[in-house]
Amino acid sequence: MKKDKIIFWVATGFIFLFDSVLPALTSHTQVAVEGIQHLGFPDYFRVMLTIFKITGGLLLILPIIPPRMKEWAYAGFGFNFISAAVAHGVVDGVGNFQTIMPLIIFAILAVSYLKYHKLLKAGYFQKTAVMKYATPLLVMALVGTSSIVFGQNEHENNQQFSVDTMNIEPDKSGYAPVNGLKLYYEIYGTGQPLVLLHGSFMNIDMCFGEVIPELSKNRQIIAVELQGHGRTADIDRPMSFSASAKDVIGLLEHLNVKNADVFGYSMGGGVALQVAAQRPDLVRKLVIASAVFKYDGWHPIALEMFPTFTADMFEGTPMKTEYERLAPDPTHWKAFVPRVMTMDADHYNWKAELEQKASKIPAFIIVGDADGVMLEHVTEMYHIFGGGVFGDISGLPKSQLAILPATTHVGVMMQTDWLLKNVPAFLDAPM
Q1: Which is deepest, 71, 118, 273, 345, by most CB within 10 Å?
Q2: Smallest Cα–Cα separation from 299: which of 379, 376, 207, 405?
Q3: Could you report the per-residue pLDDT of 298-318, keeping only the tens digit for each?
């Protein structure tokens, strides 16, 4: 059985790396774009194919996936490799390497398939082994997906996350002295203030670089880097949503902002909810993307994984690279990662606070249909902010809910065009 396990993991790992991780890392490059055009396919097919490959690779390699779903993944990859061979055969000729290579990979896939069924019959794939493999593989998927979101084309010298990727300089930037912290912020444009709060291990540009140029055309953007993130140094105090919310409130008071819209993603969404609960008078409207108001709003698998995250798992990721580039003390990384993860170790529940103090604030709640946030939790949050009514009888609520199709937790912030169309429309709607 040991030999079968080795062969299975080598073959399946090759398929996962070659046809899931590699496309995730390179699908945005000019070579990939020209390759799809060479075969006569439209460009949207390149994006769709990459998404299917990443999904299929995860279905194959994660032990927790039910056998029926794995069968579909094997079938999908088989069809993909045969179709690739046929397409290259028609365009490039039958004897071309581009035609033969997909057939070689198809043979490796067949080896993986045969060994999978042999191990399945032997009872190898037990649930006790799930987290051993699922945690590092999910991080790998996160790295690959992040590369799709943030990777730049070759003509940009392959430099990721440069502070000038937005092609726009802040009108003002600096550090606000709040609660013993020097909180870094950037301001763009003029008009109704909109505070932007990033996700865990991110910074302003990583999370909002694609949307700031457009959003700042007719409103004032106040982008923040929270405790320990980006250019804001960590300090000797526990990390918590409540403390970070107090920092944001302190920043608004420092800038003499009396009332602002607040847009938070993931961890930043939790901070935004706490800002609304602590100081509802400061918040005009909320945009909450892929965030929770209580601990068990996260998917059970996410809750199992949070305690297993370590600094070493982020080696080579954009998160680590950006931390080393911007952090006042790059050597703090190994201590920083577990400190961030403690924010979700507390079994918090802010429902009573929000219902009592913030339920009148119009909120736009955004998640992916394959998000790490449970959909049941999303609808519960929507009800807190006045949603879930029979609009034909009661009229439309001031709050809105959007569940984006075929979208993951990381993928929500990839939906740039959708965000730029719908978020401003919500913020500009009458109160």
Answers
A1: 273
A2: 376
A3: 999 888 888 888 898 888 888
